[in-house]
Design goal:
This protein is mainly alpha-helical and about 230 residues long. The protein has 2 domains: about 30-90, Lyase 2-enoyl-coa Hydratase, Chain  A, domain 2 (Orthogonal Bundle), CATH 1.10.12.70; about 115-230, Four Helix Bundle (Hemerythrin (Met), subunit A), CATH 1.20.120.1950. The chain has helices at about 1-20, 30-50, 55-70, 75-85, 90-100, 115-135, 135-140, 145-170, 175-205, 205-230. Helix 1 crosses helix 4. The longest helix has about 30 residues, at about 175-205. The chain is globular, with a radius of gyration of 19 Å. GO terms for molecular function: protein kinase binding.
């Protein structure tokens, strides 16, 4: 038991060290920690389910429960496995790529079930923005292509904000509307940070900061959808 506690503490410390490499400031949530379960772990469990349904469902339930009780647990688990195996992987880039391949079933908590046009439009616009952001690792080395992608991202951000405005009327109560407005302000703040990160990239040529900023935008997009989901479903 003592050995297990020491191993757990070591993995936790390594996880903290890795989170420090995602350019977070005090009080911020790491976007990578929130995305490891849906974009990395769940697709693996879906493949396992074809061979052993019971094992897959047991693992899915256990990991989801652990992640809910201890946010970042699956991230620390993956980092621990990578370090034990001495894998050298840019987890920010990897998670960003995997987000592009995630299915609706993998991202079920980030989709709205209401059938009204406003909710379905928010689903479409949030998915569209995330799909474009996930192309960045493949396109960032081609300046002309990347510049066109940046224009697409700017347009997708505007369309997402328009969709949020349309769904606001469905939010019950002033408190719920204020919470959604706060989510929208946070999203705008991270959009501006993304723009500043791009300027730094064109000066310095460091892609990892762009990957991290892209993940933050995805994370903030998900938080908007979760806010609407919690208030309307």
């Amino acid at each position: 038991m003592v050995h297990e506690l020491k191993v757990g503490a070591a993995l936790g410390q390594r996880g903290e060290n890795n989170r420090k490499n995602t350019n977070m400031t005090m009080g911020e949530e790491s976007p990578v920690t929130s995305l490891v379960l849906p974009v990395l772990i769940r697709p693996i469990l879906s493949k396992l389910e074809r061979r052993d349904v019971a094992a897959s469902q047991t693992l899915r339930a256990a990991l989801s429960k652990a992640e809910m009780a201890h946010p970042g647990f699956t991230y620390d688990l993956v980092v621990g496995i990578m370090q034990r195996g001495e894998f050298s992987v840019n987890l920010n880039e990897t998670v960003l790529r995997l987000q592009g391949a995630a299915t609706e079933a993998d991202m079920v908590e980030y989709r709205l079930n209401r059938s009204e046009d406003a909710f379905q439009e928010l689903n479409k616009k949030s998915a569209a923005l995330k799909k474009i952001l996930c192309r960045i690792p493949d396109e960032i080395t081609d300046r002309q292509t990347f510049l066109e992608t940046i224009k697409e991202i700017a347009s997708a951000i505007k369309k997402l904000l328009d969709a949020v405005n349309e769904v606001t009327g469905f939010i019950p109560g002033s408190e719920g509307k204020q919470q959604l407005e706060q989510r929208k302000r946070d999203f705008v703040r991270y959009s501006k940070r993304f723009s500043n990160t791009l300027k730094e990239f064109f000066r310095e040529g460091e892609p990892n900061a762009v990957f991290v900023s892209s993940l933050y935008l995805i994370h903030q997009t998900n938080k908007i959808v979760v806010c609407v989901k919690n208030k309307c479903e």
